[in-house]
Amino acid sequence: MDPALRSDRLLVRDWTVDDAEEAFAIYGSAEIAKWLAPAMQQVPDPIAMRSVLEAWIEDQPNLIPPSGHWALVRRADEVVVGGLALRLLPPHEEDVEIAWQIRPDEWGRGYATEGCRLLMRWAFTQDIDELFAVARTNNTRAIATARHIGMEWVGETTKYYGLRLQVFRIRPADLDSVPS
Ligand SMILES: CC(C)(COP(=O)(O)OP(=O)(O)OC[C@H]1O[C@@H](n2cnc3c(N)ncnc32)[C@H](O)[C@@H]1OP(=O)(O)O)[C@@H](O)C(=O)NCCC(=O)NCCS
């Protein structure tokens, strides 16, 4: 993504392989991984994290926008506080999912909410008219974030990953009713 997306506190930018140590604080965390399986497994070490980042970086130019993976960076100290992704949900690959992950020691500061709003505003310039998020019923923090970013609950399904998931949706007009 060029240029990167900016809010007062945050930057949404492309991953680089040099982010591996900081990305590992996110995707190596069991507290995060338990909510991401089966879409993504816990990353075992920083070397494996580097390989994951290499794959994401290599894939990115071949994906149809707005799909991709991005780093969420705190502008004040350039620490990678989280990761954001847009991807087609299996099995039909029609619905675009927004996914967010914040390193556990940075929870409770509103970074997921702020980063998702930045990314959604950009996504809606890329020829899509709705975005979805899915969360397990007991993933209360993720469900709270979906509400904070202006998503509405549309139901429960097992169609995406064979898991019972709560489904949230947002359209461009809903975004306009939420402060940026
Ligand atoms: C889901 C997840 C990103 C939520 O993290 P989070 O920090 O709780 O979420 P937000 O960034 O939206 O922060 C909201 C909290 O910050 C608080 N906050 C503090 N300062 C804030 C600010 N300036 N602006 C907004 N909120 C602020 C809010 O009051 C809220 O607090 P509360 O939890 O006590 O109500 C995190 O739990 C996570 O990474 N989980 C694992 C991955 C996952 O499940 N992802 C979702 C599915 S892909």
From TrEMBL:
InterPro entries linked to this entry: Acyl_CoA_acyltransferase, GNAT_dom, N-acetyltransferase
Species this protein is from: Haloactinomyces albus
Full protein name: RimJ/RimL family protein N-acetyltransferase
Domain N-acetyltransferase, chain residue ranges per copy: 10-170
One GO MF term attached to the UniProt entry: acyltransferase activity, transferring groups other than amino-acyl groups
PANTHER family to which the protein is assigned, alphabetical: GNAT FAMILY, PUTATIVE (AFU_ORTHOLOGUE AFUA_3G00765)-RELATED-RELATED, N-ACETYLTRANSFERASE DOMAIN-CONTAINING PROTEIN
A Pfam family this chain is assigned to: Acetyltransf_3
